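Your task
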Amino acid sequence: MNLLPPEITDIVLTNYRLIIATLVGYSVIFVLITYAAKRRLSHEVSDYVVASRNLGWVVVTFTMYASVLSGVGMAGIPGMVYSVGVPFVVTVLAGHTVALALLWYLGPRIWIVGKEYNFTTPGDLLGKYYQSDTLRVYTVVASILFNIAYIVAQLLAGGVLLNVLSGNTISFELGVFIITVIVMVHVASSGLRGIAWLDLFNGLLILFLLFSFGVTILAAAGGFNNVLEGLGDLKESFITIPGTVGVFTPSRIFGIFIGLSIGTIVLSPSAWIRIYSARSKSYFGKISVLMLVLWYISHIMGAFLIGTYSRLVLPDVANPDFVSSLLAFKVMPVFLAALFLIAILAAIISTTDTYMHTLAATVTRDFIQAVLWPKMDQSQEIRLNRLIMVVMAALGILLALLNPVLITPLAILGGGITVQLLPPLLGAVTWSRASTPAAIVSPAIGIVLTLVWELNILPNPVPASILPGLATAFFVNVGLFVLISYMTRPQPPEQVEKFHGLIARELSS
């Protein structure tokens, strides 16, 4: 399968040795980081899953940034800007701003109860507060749906990328397999500490390359204004709602806010695990501010300029997910272009290893151990983590090869599923009136409705121009959660004291 236009194939093949040398250089750094983290890995579950709760705030920031950015941020979002226009990236940044404000508020509260009760997964927190294994199972369902969606998205991007880097020598299918094997070996041997250390390096590399790409585009175009003015008659529709193809409605804006931003940055199981891994509850203000700065640099200097300038120089790309890779070789020196593609590879690895690790941890802890095998010891739990990772990776490969789709919509669907856990989370750390029946019923209905409406199994009762299915499902979830909580008993006072009382004391200290 030839994925590249002939002119880009010629560029890659002409500079093949340089590109391969750059890739080898990155691989050496990757192996050294993995090895260093492996030497520190203990046989304790808390070390493998949450790095012994000892990560600094800069490392936590970059591991969250790099794992969320992924192939979506470096390929999918520029592709959506290319297709839709400026409103898409503006909405993403607005959604990220709201999401990081939530992280600032919720982060210390999740951290406090996580440290006190040795939580490592979302199911630990919600299952303990609501005293319900059923709720643990819901978090596993949400984790499977979210993480599989994101893993498939990353494997799709990784297959495309290795095909680009190799000048079509490595097929898309083989590229998917190679990325999967690399990630599995890395995660199994180094745990969250290795993931976080690699994310720090990858995040810095990604930030530098996105900024450099933007500077190169501005130099090629002759300034910021020329980037937009070069669009000609397309400019007006490109910078206003509903975008160039007339589909960027309020419905799409709600979907991005809820799915791509809040559901991914705050509510994804991997975000909870990283919150647990921080060394101090005082870190989350600094983490939120730094991450917001990183997002604005990445999406303005990166996604916006790449997607916009691509409309000028690559007006006929069939698959928008290709534009960042193709434009790199059009405007950047070959070394930087190759390095930019490797930065995409770094982002893909940072996301794939995160979600494979998270998926295995949640299935093992919140389903197998909590429901089926409560006497599992720590060594058995770690081995089972690795086995489940292999099984889920195989499923990810199969789905990626059978269902090639656009990356960003798949990521939005994943976030739309995990955001359904927000009401019970707020109940556990903020609202003492929340009840167990509400926490069991409302997110289950929210997850089911998200799948039913987003996959068009049944029509969304709200007009598509107003709300997407995932947003409608979320608001139904919130309404039911409040209603059922007022109709049923809240948690016993002693249970509220264990969580809300603890949080109040720790925050005031």
